[in-house]
Amino acid sequence: MAKNDVRNSIKLTSVDDLFTTEESRSEQQREKVLDIPLAEISDFPNHPFKVKTDEAMLEMADSVKQYGVLVPGLVRPKAGGGYEMLAGHRRKKASELAGKETMPCIVRELDNEAATIIMVDSNLQRENILPSERAFAYKIKLEAIKRQAGRPSKENSTQVGQDLRGKYSVEILGEQVGESRNQIQRYIRLTELLPSILEMVDERQIAFNPAVEISYLTEKEQQNLFETMQSENCAVSLSQAQRLKKLSQDGRLNLDVIFSVLTEEKPNQKEKFNIRRERIDRFFPKNFTERQKEDLIVRLLESWYKEQE
Predict the structure, then answer these.
(1) Rounded to two decimals, what is the model's pTM?
(2) CB 3.0 to 4.6 Å from 120: which of 141, 175, 235, 306, for a disulfide?
(3) What is the pLDDT of residues 29-40, one digit of tens each?
């Protein structure tokens, strides 16, 4: 080997490295918590989890006002400046309500796939997650896992959806969130529902299984179904949803057929007790959901019943 080659192959320790301790080098690599202006933090695109200004949020805002944000959020730098929120959307909203100008955050460099997975995982830890939130969260995380795993092209149909280890992406997701492959796919079907019908699922006016069946209806058929449920003040059962799905697949589903299916008398059906909406709606705040109205009516009746006793 020539002398010049030997000389070039030798790497000398820089002056900075000579006078920098291992502890200080580790400190430079360690993530730090920074107070970042709220105005510089934007929400994660298509964030599937709802941030509501409800009673729990107001309580969180009071806590932030007194003690500050105790658990830092997680953000990543944006190419054009500012930061994108990954974990801490509710803490950010509470900080805004509390009149704070900054929020403590960990800044982490992440690609789109890793950022999406962290965003979903951090929010799935919450206790109460709506069906719509879980549905869209599973959908976007599944797409991120497929991209991250380097899924083979669709030309080889037997391999579509598999990662390089031979596992289907939906199976990997199922293992991570504790759901079966079939249940993951059923949740993702909910993303095909109209927002108005999906809201009924969140409000427990439509059960999960009927909602999955309804998701196979076309957009127009779903709109006709929603309008019929509203006008007749009824929901759809599993057996009715299955019939509607079959009629849709056969090309025989229209507004009249939907009305016929929903209003037919069921075996051993008891007479319904209905109250016209216009008689009671004026007593409720405009932002009350159907579930909140029902709960309040039941509590008032229970109170009245105890007074009668």
Answers:
(1) 0.69
(2) 141
(3) 567 889 999 999
